[in-house]
Amino acid sequence: MPTSAPSRHAQKPAQNPESPDFKTELLGLVPFLRAFARSLTGNQEAADDLAQETLVKAWQSRASFIPGTNLKAWLFTILRNQFYSDRRRAWRQAPWDQEAAERIPGGGEDQIHSAELSDTVRALKHLSDEQREALILVGAGGFSYEDAAAICKCAVGTVKSRVARARKTLIEILDGGGSLGDVSRPAGGDAAREIMAQLDQLSPGRSEQVVAGKKRPK
Amino acid sequence: MSQQWDTAVSDEKPTEKARAIRARQRAIGRELRRMYDDVAQEPVPDDFMDLLRQIDEAEEQGGKKTS
């Protein structure tokens, strides 16, 4: 069992939406919908509501999914649209729920990691929505810049600059925030190499995914 | 982005600064992935299964043509 999320990069051929397996495939992607929703809302309840709405929307509009294209990116697009349309309808809601965000680690089985996590996660709320979503998609979700651009409905270059600015802003926030500083502790040895390897995988040029992303319906 | 360091006020070599920044970015990336993966590895709440089951039932009742 790899240490990262199950099959983050796996790209099974997406089923025909009329196939009985399509629902199974949707369900298999729910964990990632929940993770993306949590990153957008910073709130577990709101995130699960959002992910459920997405699931229903996806099922209702499954006819518009083109078999063989990137189902995960298609779902994320729906989720993102839903997030912003919900947001417009409920302006009074806080953009990001900080208290809930601090609970994101959940288990709390690892004190040090939880502390680090909450610092970075808390800093996320200072990013614009656009920067945050770009950073999450590329930096955590494992999407190519091209797929992230399709999901966010913007140019690839725009995603790149949003990710770069998001990283820069996060570092500034973490540096400026006293107790937040620990997050920067460089990873040593094997951990660092592993992260480097992961980052390489996240870099653009993963051509198969790019092709899949380009064929996605709007 | 190319001027993240200022050689006029820093004794450090730009490459070291750049390396430090990259290390920071990697650390941040690691934290973001951990946040994301933590959620992705949670068991999916029953609500989601129930939801699809309800959709199924609704479609059965509504006839095969619904979509």
Provide structural commentary:
The complex is a heterodimer of chains A (218) and B (67). Chain A is mostly helical and 218 residues long. Chain A has one domain: PhyR, sigma-like (SL) domain (Butyryl-CoA Dehydrogenase, subunit A, domain 3). Chain A contains ten helices and no strands. The longest helix of chain A has 21 residues. The termini of chain A are far apart. The longest helix of chain B has 27 residues. Chain B starts with 13 loop residues before the first helix and ends in a 5-residue tail after the last helix. Classes of the chains: A mainly alpha (218), B mainly alpha (67). The interface between A and B is large, with 57 and 33 residues.
Question: Can I get a quick summary?
Answer:
Helix content of chain A is 64%, strand content 0%.
Features:
heterodimer, A: 218 residues, mainly alpha, Butyryl-CoA Dehydrogenase, subunit A, domain 3, 0% strand, disordered N terminus, disordered C terminus, B: 67 residues, 2 helices, rod-shaped
Topology readout:
The complex is a heterodimer of chains A (218) and B (67).
Chain A: H1 21-41, H2 44-60, H3 71-89, H4 98-102, H5 111-124, H6 129-140, H7 145-152, H8 156-176, H9 189-202, H10 207-214
Chain B: H1 14-40, H2 46-62
Mean pLDDT of chain B: 77
Unreliable runs of chain A: 1-10, 105-116, 178-218
By oligomeric state, this entry counts as heterodimer
Mass-distribution shape of chain B: rod-shaped
Q: In percent terms, what proportion of residues of chain A is strand?
A: under 5%
Beta-strand portion of chain B reads under 5%
Q: Percent helix among the residues of chain A?
A: 55-70%
Radius of gyration of chain A, in Å, reads 17 Å
Q: Which pair of chains has the greatest number of interface residues, and how are they split between the two chains?
A: A-B, 57 and 33 residues
Structural class label of chain A: mainly alpha
